[in-house]
Amino acid sequence: xxxxxxxxxxxxxxxxxxxAIKLQPNQPFTWASGIKAPxxxxxxxxxxxPKIRTYIRQEITKILSDNFGKPDVIAGVATGGIAxxxxxxxxxxxxxxxxxxxxxxxxxxxxxxxxxxxxxxxxVIEDLVSTGASSLNAVETIRNAGCTVKGMVAIFTYDLExxxxxxxxxxxxxxxxxxxxxxxxxxxxxxxxxxxDIKSLKEWRKDPKSWEPSN
Length: 215
Hints:
Elements: H1 5-17, E1 21-23, E2 29-30, E3 36-37, E4 39-41, H2 50-68, E5 73-77, H3 80-92, E6 96-99, E7 112-113, E8 121-129, H4 133-144, E9 148-157, H5 161-170, E10 174-179, H6 180-189, H7 195-206
Parallel strand pairs: 5-6, 5-8, 8-9, 9-10
Antiparallel strand pairs: 1-4, 2-3, 6-7
C-alpha cells in the first residue's frame, strides 16, 4: 500500500537526484540472484543527505501514526533498515532492535540484536522490498520471539506479484513511501527515461526472470 502520492513523487525525485535509484533499460544490472534488471536501488545513500533522511524519517513517522499507532519497539532489517530504524525509534522515543538474516555463528548466536520482550508490539522498518523473502524472514523471527508485528514500512518496493503474495500469506501489512509505478511516472515526467523505456520497464515487472532488454 502506498501512503501518499504527492509525498511519493517527492521522495522518488530525491532518490533519482542522489542516484539511489538508477534506471538502465538498455544496459541492465545483474542482481545477486542472477536476474537481469533495468533498475538498481541503494537507498542507504539517503543517509548521506541530512535533508532527505529527515524528510523520509518524518514521512515514516506519519505512516506509523496514520496506520499502525505507536509500537513498543522499532525493528530494522539488517542491513538497510538499521540506520533508518534508529532514526525513527529516536523520533518516537521507543527502543530499537535489528534483525539479522541468520543467527551469529559465535558468541550468544543472536538473530535479534538489542532488547526485546515477549508480548511487545513491533513495527519493522525496511529500506527496500523486492520479493519480500528477507523482509518477511525478519517478521517471522520477531513473531517467534513472542512479539506482535504491527506491520512493515519500507522506502521503496518494486511491487512484484511474488512480493504481494508473500506478504498476503504472511498476513503482514506493508506500507511504502514510494513504489515502482510512481518511479516510472516521475522518471518520465523529468525525461529521465523515454516513452519507449516505459514499456520495457513495465514488462520487466511482469516477469523479471525472463525479461530481456529491448535493444
